[in-house]
Amino acid sequence: MELIDQHTKKIMEQCKKKSQEAGLQFDSSTLEYIVTNRDLIELGPKVMIPSLYDYWVHDLQVIAGQKIYEVYPNNPYETVINTRPAISFYNDNNPDWLNAMIFYHVLGHIDFFQNNSFFKHTRSEDFCGKALSDKREIEKIRQQLGERKRWVDYVIEFARAIDNLVGYYAELKELNREESQGSDRIQYYFGDFLKNIFEEQGINHNQYLDKVARCNHLQKELGVEAGEKTFLKEVEKEYSEFEALFERYKREQKAKPGDVFQHILENSPFLNLRQNKDAWWMKKVIQIIRDTSLYFQPQIRTKIFNEGWASYWHQHLFIKDSLIEGHRDTYAKVNSGVMVMPRVGLNPYALSFKLLEYIEESANAGKLSLEFQKIQGVEERRKFDRKTGAGKKILFDLRRNFNDSLLINYLSDDDFQDFVDRYRLFVAGKRINPERRTVEYYVKSRRGKDYRKMLNDSLYHPPHIIIEEEEQQTRSGGLYLNHVFEGKTLVKRFIPAVLTGLEYLCGGDKPKAICLETTEFEISEEDMWKMAMDSKYQPNYKKLRVVYTMKKKNLTRVVVNTEEKKK
């Protein structure tokens, strides 16, 4: 692995200038490295962070990657990581024109990393430097433990088993609160307080907006501080219980950990036992795993949008670059391989790129307006064009504020149906052909609502786990976790290993019971066969609320509630 040569670096600098002229915003300092495909195999398990901590699973993944590469050799074009300065990796045999195309794509990624609000907590962090410091800290712990160093990997494994439960949005909320100019009371009023009022009294959104407008008016007229005080006096007149509820909210927020990691670090009897000589290093390792997970959370939640944004810019900028001359045919072949829309499955590059272009075109024509939404006629909708020229502004607004979920659900149902119709998208289904005795794919639906549901179901959505209150914890004897069912069940085969790790981290040699309450479904074997043979068959199934309990490495399962449902 080595830095790119000066000739290639000059091309990159020219691409930066043209990208910034087009509106992209990013730090001018970047590092570009030339790597071989073998290097990429070794970096892959570490998510392209060369300085990430060592872990035995990484070694296994490298060996597996090498075997796969021998059978299926491939040539990845680039990888970029979000750190300061931004670092990107390139294949060692790319020609200049291909490097220019890839540079525009990478600069699109960097612009997204450094301006999207979901990456706010990473903007000023040199994660590669932090990862190197963490790696050295873990290696130091291994050396100090001597023959017992294998326990470091055990704790890493236990912590990584729950790293998708990290309180990412809680961290983001706290960061937003610290940056906000509003007081804690104002934040609480327009957040949790009004949310509860909406649920209890059915206040509509227009009333909410009226209250926001009133607060803004007072702040503008009297000044921020005086305006807030006046507004809060009006709130207390309307809701006499506001102050008492705010005080209770502050106490609960201060006492409640943001995720399972924090709860274990703060409340584990084992890790906080004074006689436990291993507590100091275990806490450090767990904190490192938590910080690493928080760093990667926004990348997981913006993968589709991020790839589409980078693809949008490499297409729009490289097509105007002089380096494309003489290579248009080759570029078209390379680009089509990246941007193809598969008939079955999902290509995030192509889908997001086409969706962004469609949104830009709609905004330019004024089709995102209320006027257009009221139009019912197909031909009238097709011919509608107000020539607003607002497309680019809308795209940059989306880049600043949206993740994958928000982007996919941005368009109205009618507009999204138009998008699906334009590109002839459909939801594919699978069924058994009894005559041929094969599995075949078929067009299950061309409805925009169904296609959007398929996209939403494919998004990263970690389970919502609530740490129950002290009363429930006491009843369980240890830790009681409540999985809030949101349409997806937990993967059963992972439950024993996760609860075993939690049992150790909470109790050590004196294990505490770890309880997990979750939702499961049961379908008879006969119904399963009927579903496989007939895609339209609707089975009877049982919805179960069950509690898994891990104690002394023994797992038990108890059904606490049963409900018959029809699919």
From TrEMBL:
UniProt xrefs under PANTHER family: STAGE V SPORULATION PROTEIN R
Classification via Pfam families: SpoVR
Domain SpoVR protein-like N-terminal stretches: 9-457
Taxonomic source organism: Candidatus Portnoybacteria bacterium CG_4_10_14_0_2_um_filter_44_20
Recorded superkingdom: Bacteria
InterPro entries hit by this protein: Spore_V_R (IPR007390), SpoVR_N (IPR056174)
Name the UniProt record assigns to this protein: SpoVR family protein
